[in-house]
Amino acid sequence: MKSFAARVEEERPYLIRYASLQLRDRHAAEDCVQETLVAALAGEASFGGRSNLRTWLTGILKHKIVDAIRRMARDPEPVPDVAELEALFDETGHWREAPDAWPDNSLEQKQFFSVLEECLARLPAKTAQAFMMREHMGYETDEICKELAVTPTHCWVLLYRARMALKECLQTNWFQK
Amino acid sequence: MKLTCKEASRLVSQGLDRRLGPWEWLRLRLHLAICDACAAFTKQMEFLRRAIRRLP
Predict the structure, then answer these.
(1) Which candidate in B2, B4, B5 is best for mutational testing of the A interface (most A CBs within 10 A)?
(2) CA distances (Å), origin A69, targets A77, A96, A122
(3) Which residues constitute the domain of residue A116?
(4) Is the CB of A104 less than 8 angstroms away from the CB of B14?
(5) A85 within 8 A of B10, measured Cβ to Cβ
(6) Which residues of chain B neighbour A104 with C-beta distances below 8 Å?
């Protein structure tokens, strides 16, 4: 049977991918994963084989990611520019281009997820962090506001902006093909 | 009183992050009942949520 250390090490690529999606910085992601693996090896006893190893490691990683985001949040970022959002609607608040149905079967296509990741990579840093904390890590808005040091209203604006930008990006680069 | 699509889209997004107030919720429902574009937008946002959860 494989040693605990070997099994933990096997999860490294998965964890780096997870952290990269969140932090968008390969170097920062690798640092977080390294800290996670060190903590995991030191805490083998607390794992005790009672849950899924990947789930347990991801739980530790989430804390490391939040710490990293908190460090990054100290760098100020300009207030979001809403001009691009305004461009989606006319003066009376109607859609310039009405959204239509997206076929569900895209979720079965590997290529779709590459496009989605490219779209995520184009978001401004703080917008992307708020969005991924919400949708990928499943945090509640109040926790996100706290970690990113923004007001709830600003937080909702960030999430709204992220969704609108992703919608536009997917529409152009995937659904219109 | 009546929502524009722009306001409706913002409420759809916020509805994914917080519980809307009864008045907001009602106005949004009324708008979605008569606006195909915003109803489609709501489905797109739900799709996006499912897509992100499937990312490895």
Answers:
(1) B5
(2) 13, 36, 18
(3) 83-175
(4) no
(5) no
(6) 47
CATH of the domain at A16: 1.10.1740
Give chain A positions within 8 Å (CB) of B46. none
**Same structural domain for residues A100 and A48?**
no
Tell me the backbone φ, ψ of residue A89, rounded to 5 degrees.
Answer: -125, 155
Do A169 and A87 share a domain, yes or no?
yes
Interface subset of A 128-157, CB within 8 angstroms of B: 132, 134-136, 141, 155-156
Task: Specify the 3-state DSSP secondary structure of A40.
Answer: helix
The per-residue pLDDT string of chain A (177 residues; one tens digit each, 9 = 90 and over) reads 788 889 999 999 999 999 999 888 888 899 899 989 988 988 888 887 777 999 999 999 999 999 888 877 765 544 445 567 778 999 899 999 999 999 999 999 999 999 999 999 989 888 999 999 999 999 999 999 888 888 888 899 999 999 999 999 999 999 985
Chain B partners within 8 Å of A155 (Cβ): 17
Q: Are A36 and A9 in contact (CB under 8 A)?
A: no
- Tell me whether A125 touches chain B (CB under 8 Å): no
